[in-house]
Amino acid sequence: MNITNQTQFITTEGGQIAFEDTGGNGPAILAIPGMGDLRSEYRYLRPALQQAGYRVITMDARGYGETSATWNDYSARAVGRDAVAVLKHLGAGPATIMGNSFAAGSALWAAQDAPEQVNGVVLLGPIVRDLEPTFVQKLSLKIGFAGPWRVGFWTIYWDTLFPTKKPADHAQVEAAITENLREPGRMDALIAMLGLSKADTAAILDQTKVPALIVMGTRDPDFTDAVEEARMLAGKLNAETLIVDGAGHYPHTEMPDLVSPRILSFLGELAGNGPSIKLAAAP
């Protein structure tokens, strides 16, 4: 799938990680998309961050986009190692890592395993612990991934994650995700990720010291009570929170005008925490 002519690659742990880099001398932000999604997920945040003086790096997670499809390990921790490998390759750390959904755990693991490379994390719709699915959810997953319709099943589910406002290019992005997931090995990667426990990530929440911002939509369908989930995580991580009224699992693409200013504010706060940040965010 040809996502961009600016794609760069690194080889790590037997596979290739695809990423884009806006370059520049500003503080670095590395963004990891959620499960089954593409690095274009950050298409609305990237311009605002770049305009404010930041260097923005977006990567495709293991299994998706232009990154290799087949890996021995699809865990959040493994994806966190990939993020650190990209930062080291570019000499861009320490950086703030943004992660959506399962990749919020990757951001936390990167901070845990390579604290010298990570100065903050932004967790967007974070799924960092095991959530007990209902009987209906279990049955739906079993049937939905049982046959050749599984890509369509996934994209129908993905569509429900934008309950209030779908982006103008939503149909185009859905088509790109569908095309990507039809490539050999990619749905297998997604199913493997879905089957992984997040207990290891949950176990490090109380140990995490890195500054954190949690961004949660009130209508995120992945949670019984998204607001309570955000509050619980904020307590464990000593994190700041932004609750986005009406948003689903992708508040940063559904309502970027509300999310971008708060992220910039958080990044501005990090500017005073160490000499690694060269520029402050725009007010």
**Helical content, roughly?**
25-40%
What is the terminal separation in angstroms?
38 Å
* Rg: 17 Å
Contiguous helical run count: 11
Structural summary, described in words:
The protein has 283 residues and is an alpha/beta fold. The chain has one domain: Alpha/Beta hydrolase fold, catalytic domain (Rossmann fold), CATH 3.40.50.1820. 39% of the residues lie in helices and 16% in strands. The chain has 11 helices and 8 strands. Strands 1-2-4-3-5-6-7-8 form an 8-stranded mixed β-sheet, sandwiched between helices. A hairpin with a 2-residue loop joins strand 1 (8-12) and strand 2 (15-21). Helix 2 crosses helix 3 (103-113) and helix 5 (150-159) packs antiparallel against helix 6 (170-181). The longest helix is centred in the first third of the chain and has 15 residues, at 76-90. It is globular, with a radius of gyration of 17 Å. The protein starts with 7 loop residues before the first strand and ends in a 13-residue tail after the last helix. The model is unreliable at 1-5 and 274-283 (pLDDT under 50).
State the gist of this model.
The protein has 283 residues and is of the alpha/beta class.
